[in-house]
Amino acid sequence: MAKFSFRLVMPERELLATEADMVVVPGSEGDFGVMHGHAPLISTVRPGVLEVFQGSKVEQRFLVVGGFAEVTPERCTVLADEAMPFETVTAEQLAERQRAAERDLVDAATDAEKAAAQKNLSVAKDLQRAQAYYAGR
Fold it and tell me: 2-34 b/e with 16+ CB inside 10 Å = b?
């Protein structure tokens, strides 16, 4: 199996740069797998779990909040708004993130604040669902 270059980058730092056999990205239209020779594409990334495969085994998982993925036949780069290694995030941390978003929604005074709080609440719920699904895998 031919490897390709994969990078996971956040605004403040690069989280991962490796050669991978496959990466599964949580795209806005659904999860998609990237392997060497993939057709070029650009996609938005939704909150979920990104998986990095070596051979047929998942070597690393990351919770991602959103961003963009750029794919060419030789590489895949995910520019994530926020990403964290899956094993470092607990269900309690995600529950607290949801509670904070709910408080922000209650405290929101303007339409812009309400929209931002609603988006943060939606992201928190999506991350909790993803974490619960992948925790047992």
Answer: eebebebbbeeeebbeeebbbbbbbbeeeeeeb
